[in-house]
UniProtKB/TrEMBL annotation:
Residues that, per the record, bind GTP: 235-239, 256, 279-281, 301, 336, 341
Keyword match Zinc: yes
Protein name per Swiss-Prot or TrEMBL: GTP cyclohydrolase-2
Family: Belongs to the GTP cyclohydrolase II family.
Signal sequence segment: none
Broad EC category: hydrolase
Keyword terms: GTP-binding, Hydrolase, Metal-binding, Nucleotide-binding, Riboflavin biosynthesis, Zinc
EC nos: 3.5.4.25
Length: 387
């Protein structure tokens, strides 16, 4: 069923299939999602066009459903019928059966994207439907594509043979975060003297699917310190284009990055700053910009992410743990205000010897952002910093 590629290593084959399916969804092309018992055709509500919807209709056994992440469905509750579940039970996805007038690109994006300005047809309203078995994998695949977790999905008709669409196994989609993280390997290294750390090297890591790289900024010789039983100072820094590169005042990322490099350079034996490709706590730059729009309308950081269908924090700390393992560092002191980073590393087998505070004073623009970090994310920030 569908196009396949079968390298000798099953893990690599699974990673490549997911990577290619991600690219198809980002282009608006439907893909086939399957397990041992089910086969569906799906596309991302954010990117699918009229041609993609026509492909789905030609392959589907019944009219497609729109699947939304539960937090996105909660944000648009007035637009959809009441839940088909007992109170307090969180579904894996909310499934909506749309009337024909809503099965078109602008309407689908309106349901998926709170920042997309489009009027829904008057008098049209979806019906609730039970979430299909492959719903969790479908939403997970959209998230891996850094698209909004909203998909159009329908079961395949019988007797289709092999449709000319890329096929991916649901099991590979669900396993992708762990498989990609544990397959990270060093692919390049160079000395890069920095303004605040002359003895610095940058080491690039890439997963087996050839996807986006994560970087380690290694200052001094922390590997030697680790080999002698020491615990180098380590900072986990999620990339932030707006803060790190442009100097945005909306966050504290740029000052945190520069101060961390300078602080590590002062350490006996040095340390490591892991520069992780997990923009916006793992939701990606485009979605972070959407979240900014929602924050400007009154939501805080956490509620803006949830209104888009994302979790409060979508980062994968196994990425950092694997990079540290590749560097020969198993014991660390972590420069952070976020207890979740300590717990996340420890859960992945890294021995966390202690925490080093890393506070940046508010600047008059990001005061509310820092207050939300303390009040709703549990960051350990001092009251004088507006928290």
């Amino acid at each position: 069923m569908g196009q396949t590629d079968t390298p000798a290593d099953p893990l690599v084959a699974g990673l490549r299939a997911v990577h290619r399916a991600v690219a198809e969804l980002r282009r608006g092309t439907p893909v086939l999602l399957r397990d041992e018992s089910h086969g569906v055709v799906m596309a991302a509500a954010e990117t699918v066009g009229a041609g993609g919807l026509a492909e789905i209709a030609a392959l589907a056994r019944v009219a497609p459903l729109l699947l939304l992440a539960p937090s996105r469905a909660a944000a648009i509750a007035p637009l959809i019928p009441p839940a088909l579940r007992p109170a307090g039970e969180e579904p894996a996805a909310v499934a909506l059966r749309l009337p024909p007038a809503l099965l078109e690109p602008a309407a689908l994006r309106s349901y998926a994207d709170p920042t997309f300005e489009s009027l829904l047809p008057p008098g049209q309203r979806p019906d609730r439907a039970p979430a299909p078995p492959l719903a969790p994998a479908a939403l997970a695949l959209a998230k891996l594509a850094r698209l909004l977790p909203a998909v159009v999905m329908a079961p395949l008709r019988e007797g289709l043979g092999s449709p000319d669409l890329l096929a991916v196994a649901a099991a590979n989609v669900l396993a992708y975060p762990v498989d990609a993280a544990t397959s990270l390997r060093r692919v390049a290294e160079a000395a890069v003297p920095l303004e605040d750390a002359a003895d610095a090297r940058i080491i690039a890591f890439r997963a087996a699917d050839g996807g986006i790289e994560h970087l380690a900024i290694v200052i001094g010789r922390p590997e030697e310190l680790a080999a002698s039983g020491g615990a180098p100072l380590v900072r986990l820094h999620s990339e932030c284009f707006t803060g790190d590169l442009l100097g945005s005042l909306r966050c504290d990322c740029g000052p945190q990055l520069r101060r961390a490099i300078a602080r590590i350079a002062q350490e006996e034996g040095g340390g490591v700053l892991l520069y992780l490709a997990q923009e916006g706590r793992g939701i990606g730059l485009v979605n972070k910009l959407r979240a900014y729009r929602l924050q400007d309308a009154g939501l805080d950081t956490l509620d803006a992410n949830r209104a888009l269908g994302w979790g409060a924090d979508e980062r994968n700390f196994l990425v950092a743990a694997t990079m540290l393992e590749q560097l020969g560092i198993g014991r660390v002191r972590v420069m952070t205000n976020n207890p979740d980073k300590l717990a996340g590393l420890a859960a992945c087998g890294v021995v966390v010897e202690g925490r080093v505070a890393h506070e940046i004073a508010p600047n008059g623009v990001n005061d509310g952002y820092l207050a939300t970090k303390a009040a709703r994310f549990g960051h350990l920030l001092a009251p004088q910093d507006g928290n």
